[in-house]
What we know:
This protein is α/β, with parallel strands linked by helices. It has one domain: Histone deacetylase domain (Arginase, Chain A), CATH 3.40.800. Helices cover 44% and strands 12% of the residues. The protein has nine helices and nine strands. The protein has helices spanning 25-35, 47-51, 56-67, 73-92, 121-133, 149-155, 176-188, 215-232, 247-261, and strands spanning 2-4, 39-40, 97-99, 138-142, 159-160, 163-164, 166-169, 195-200, 237-241. The strands form two sheets. Strands 2-1-3-9-8-4-7 form a seven-stranded parallel β-sheet, with helices on both faces. A two-stranded antiparallel ribbon has the order 5-6. The longest helix has 20 residues, at 73-92. It is globular and about 45 Å long. The structure holds zinc ion. Zinc ion (ZN) binds next to loops.
Amino acid sequence: xxxxxxxxxxxxxxxxxxxxxxxxxxxxxxxxxxxxxxxxxxxxxxxxxxxxxxxxxxxxxxxxxxxxxxxxxxxxxxxxxxxxxxxxxxxxxxxxxxxxxxxxxxxxxxxxxxxxxxxxxxxxxxxxxxxxxxxxxxxxxxxxxxxxxxxxxxxxxxxxxxxxxxxxxxxxxxxxxxxxxxxxxxxxxxxxxxxxxxxxxxxxxxxxxxxxxxxxxxxxxxxxxxxxxxxxxxxxxxxxxxxxxxxxxxxxxxxxxxxxxx
Length: 262
Ligand SMILES: [Zn+2]
């Protein structure tokens, strides 16, 4: 098991809730205590890797924004994408990993972005795997409160009609029991795949915006993903952080998720 993290993710990134001061501090504190020796620092994603998921125009627009005052934004967005790539690489080598990264990415599409996202970390990671290992099929569990429209927009074009390379689940339910049931059922019915990955947002937490999932549910989701990976795709699994805005609740929920996932 490995945790991907860079100290530059800690200070305030931008004026959004995802880029806010102190957001990752409680999570870092808990994970450092439990997994101190498992921390790895990512490199910047290459321009080539970013352009697998985004247009040159989009990349230029983020760089331009960065030049207009938010000088570290472009670099941090590349660093987060680099963290996702490293998580995916580790998973391919058989090491389960979690990317404690920001800014998040699942609302970034090929030519645009919103929702505190800039580059689509998940798509960049999966398209990297596609290029490097020729592994084309993945199951993506996006358990963020919000639908990852960027993941859907970028990844839905791959594969044949009736057999998409990327199967994406954005569960939605009124209560925890139904939510877990939906996840379990989708995993049971999933097509064969090479790897399973989570767009791991924690804003669906009981003490977060969505008011739905307890730490126990996050533990269960982690467990289901681990079992799925071991049964279906040689244990290959990774998760990267998306949303989560009650900083202390997020830390507790990440901890619970990883107890099931690792
Ligand atoms: Zn969200």
